[in-house]
Amino acid sequence: MPKNNRHGQADIWDDQQFESVMKELSPKMRAVFSICYFTCCRVSEALQLQREDLVGDRIVFRKRTTKTKQTREVAIHPRLAEILASAALPARGYLFPGRDGKKPMTRQAADQALRTACDYLGLQGFSTHSNRRTAATRLNNQGVPLMVIQKIGGWASLAALQRYLEVSDEQMDEAIGKL
């Protein structure tokens, strides 16, 4: 069931939807949601990132900012590197500072920007979690082992990760056809 009024699961982006939404977002918001997509992270984890957390070709999610309280590192995808470079992010402190500059941008502000873009495009059922679900599902569909996806996105367990994965009707039909 797609997400509706904060109930149900966030829908999965197809390529066209993802690209359309990214084009509607400001460079800063595009960077936030691209981090969520290319690292399978939660939006709150992306918003807590500081410039010092970009170390070489990796993003470090500090244990104090993750839900599982475990530090993890994820490689920066080349496309994500381009998006970050074009976003004019600060040279130090929070990558996505809030209005006062002392605290990070709020989840609500990121959510509102995404909702505005989705509403403009007539897209329903998507939320800040769509990037995380989409990335995990795509990695799974490409045959990436579940334990690798779990480690990239910081899921506490394989059971928690499996709730994020979308299984299409076509995949079920194909599986039955293999019997």
Characterize the structure shown.
This protein has 179 residues and is mainly alpha-helical. It has one domain: Orthogonal Bundle (hpI Integrase, Chain A). It has 9 helices and 3 strands.
SSE topology:
Blueprint: H1 15-24, H2 27-39, H3 43-47, E1 54-55, E2 58-61, E3 72-75, H4 78-85, H5 107-121, H6 130-141, H7 146-153, H8 158-162, H9 169-177
Antiparallel strand pairs: 1-2, 2-3
Helix pairs in contact: 1-5, 2-6
Approximate shape: globular
Q: The CATH topology is what?
A: hpI Integrase, Chain A
Task: Kindly state the percentage of residues in helix.
Answer: 40-55%
Helix and strand content put the structural class at mainly alpha
Secondary structure tally: strands: 3
Q: From the coordinates shown, what is the CATH architecture?
A: Orthogonal Bundle
Number of domains: 1
Oligomer description: single chain
Spatial strand arrangement across the major sheet: 1-2-3
Report the span from N to C terminus.
28 Å
Q: Helical region count? A: 9
Which whole number gives the mean pLDDT? 92
Q: How is the biggest beta sheet arranged?
A: 3 strands, antiparallel
Strand content: 5-15%
Low-confidence stretches: 1-6
Order of helices and strands: HHHEEEHHHHHH
CATH class: Mainly Alpha
CATH superfamily: Intergrase catalytic core
Q: Supply Rg.
A: 16 Å
